[in-house]
Amino acid sequence: MTEIFGIPVQAFLGQLLLGLVNGSFYAMLSLGLAVIFGLLGIVNFAHGALYMIGAYVAWISLNQFGLNYWVALLLSPLVVGALGVVIERLLLRHLYKLDPLYGLLLTFGLALIFEGLFRDQFGVSGQQYPVPELLRGATNLGFMTLPNYRAWVVVASLTICLGTWFVIEKTSLGATLRAGTENPALVQAFGINVPVMVTLTYAGGAALAAIAGVLAAPVIQVTPLMGSNLIIVVFAVVVIGGMGSILGSILTGVMLGLIEGLTKVLYPEASSIVVFVIMAIVLVIRPAGLFGKEM
Amino acid sequence: MNAAVTPAATGTDKVSGHRIGAITWLVVFAFLLVAPFVGVYPVFMMKALCFAIFACAFNLLLGYTGLLSFGHASFMGSAAYATGWLVRSAHLSPELGVLAGVLLAGALGLVVGLLAIRRQGIYFAMITLAMAQMIYFICLQVPFTGGEDGLQGVPRGRLFGLLPLDNDLVMYYVVLAVFAAVFLAIVRIVHSPYGQILKAIRENEPRAISLGYDVDRYKLLAFVLSTALAGLAGSMKTMVLGFATLSDVHWSLSGEVILMTLLGGMGTFAGPVVGAVTIIGLQNFLADRVGSWVTVIIGVIFVFCVIAFRRGIVGELLAWQQRRGNR
């Protein structure tokens, strides 16, 4: 058996793995969106731009300062998280009493600003980021060769996703966070500094996007447009999964990445629209989303 | 969007307010009539008017129904492609080409609207954006749009076999007439009983439901009307410029039409027109001066409008007039 659906097993599994890699990025980004939306009530359109900046921080620190991948993996979330603090303190803070649509519009404007600045600085063509030495090459699993870096991306991002899930659902910090989502005034009355919590939540979501950006840098080309292309798909993922459940958004992200990978093998023409088609179907069958509660 | 002001001149200043309004409109209309003769570049004016139609159509949805569509470019763009292809390759007359574009945009609007109204608020925006992205990818892949190159060389032809549209002046007055018709139609719709129900939905959807209105049907009709008119804008733009490209269906244009409406003043009749002319003028002015900084500047205006200028230009003017009247 060397073929599935008339395609060599090797190529088939390769595409599926690529789908899994994309799915991990969807999962990380939709997770960040869900956490931010939960506490701030803002759909962060700038999430894609933060992901893009995360990748560029890695690229710049390698090419300007000679800092390697592992340093970038720590540095990038810190830099982007700090940017998140600035954004939340300066801008988003003024919007909490308004219709949530204004939050979407403001972060859309921010996304345009970041994208324009990076395009002016680096042009639209993609930059290569080398795979770190430790993770070069591939492992032969017998039925397929597994590129080490891709395996690392999947393992790392799923670990981070599940770690975030654990912190939010199973620790006392997470309990406070969830309480803040339900009733900020009451949590404040218990002596917890809710505004700081809100700021740190946004920064945390931004840092997650940055980590995804660094992980993505060696797999895809680093371009100023990589964020906006991704964020719209992630929005569809969020509509499909519903923003109510954290585990739900992780699962939906991974699943849709796999489906997209599968479509690339079976019917490549449809691979760029399959997520949207699924969104339409889910809306017809289960309008609240697979894991969502109607809001 | 509840925070949008619904400006209405009240009490004693109602009469003078109406008079100022009427005089302003007369002046603007007179200017539009003579614009080509006072040295305004007609193609620029036509482009601006097409985007004004687009923004007015969008405002019917955002300003008067409170629905934020983040995918309106896809309706404008598909109509632009349809008209362009029908007129160029199927040799349809311009009026039939435009009509077909409008119908296509309305039909797409019906499908997308049916899906999007199943969710409220922020999800509505995300669904329209995602569906628009799907339409974008379809336009990128189907053969007749010309892919990355776009659809070029659409002849203007003769309107009803009579009016030679190749003449910029004739074309200008046709576009102006279409714009005036759309503008008056929207004023009429908003002031009709149907328009009042739309406003009720914007202000308080649960209450509109409890009053017995089939809210989804009203929303869907508003969505289809808005997308069909957006299609009209796209079709007219193709006839004016002679091409349709991928940027007509791109999400950044969906963002721009939001900005036009927000900057001009959502929920006001004149706002989208002012916003469209401002943004198109600004882009024209900046295009060869600052390169990719245009995106940054647009983004900054966006952020500024949301933080400090939510009423928009016209909304601020009306509020100022009202304050002065109350004194």
Give a written overview of the molecule.
The complex is a heterodimer of chains A (295) and B (327). Chain A is mainly alpha-helical and 295 residues long. Chain A has one domain. Chain A is built from 11 helices and 4 strands; from the N terminus they run ββααααββααααααα. In chain A, strands 1-2 form a two-stranded antiparallel sheet. In chain A, strands 3-4 form a two-stranded antiparallel sheet. In chain A, a hairpin with a 2-residue loop joins strand 1 (3-4) and strand 2. The longest helix of chain A is centred in the N-terminal third of the chain and has 32 residues, at 9-40. Chain B is mainly α and 327 residues long. Chain B has a domain at 39-249. Chain B contains 13 helices and 2 strands. Chain B has helices spanning 14-34, 42-65, 72-88, 94-116, 121-141, 168-191, 193-203, 205-210, 215-241, 251-264, 271-290, 293-308, 312-326, and strands at residues 158-159, 163-164. A two-stranded antiparallel sheet of chain B has the order 1-2. In chain B, strand 1 (158-159) and strand 2 (163-164) form a beta hairpin. The A-B interface holds A 43, 91, 94-95, 98-102, 104-106, 108-117, 119-120, 228, 232-233, 235-236, 238-239, 269, 272-273, 275-277, 279-280, 283-284, 287-288, 295 and B 1-3, 68, 70, 115, 118-123, 125-127, 129-131, 133-134, 137-138, 140-141, 251-252, 255, 258, 262, 291-303, 305-307, 310.
Question: What does this entry show, briefly?
Answer:
Chain A has 295 residues and is mainly α. Chain A is 70% helix and 3% strand.
Measured between the Cα atoms of the first and last residue of chain A, the distance is 49 Å
Cα-based radius of gyration of chain B, to the nearest Å: 19 Å
By secondary-structure content and strand pairing, the structural class of chain B works out as mainly alpha
Question: How does the major sheet of chain B shape up?
Answer: 2 strands, antiparallel
Shape of chain A: globular
Count of individual domains of chain A: 1
What's the arrangement of secondary structure elements?
The complex is a heterodimer of chains A (295) and B (327).
Chain A: E1 3-4, E2 7-8, H1 9-40, H2 47-63, H3 69-90, H4 100-122, E3 138-140, E4 145-147, H5 148-170, H6 172-182, H7 184-189, H8 194-216, H9 226-241, H10 246-266, H11 274-285
Antiparallel strand pairs in A: 1-2, 3-4
Helix pairs in contact in A: 1-5, 1-8, 1-9, 1-10, 2-3, 2-4, 2-8, 2-9, 3-8, 5-6, 9-10, 9-11
Chain B: H1 14-34, H2 42-65, H3 72-88, H4 94-116, H5 121-141, E1 158-159, E2 163-164, H6 168-191, H7 193-203, H8 205-210, H9 215-241, H10 251-264, H11 271-290, H12 293-308, H13 312-326
Antiparallel strand pairs in B: 1-2
Helix pairs in contact in B: 2-6, 2-9, 2-10, 2-11, 3-4, 3-5, 3-9, 4-5, 4-9, 6-7, 7-9, 10-11, 10-12, 10-13
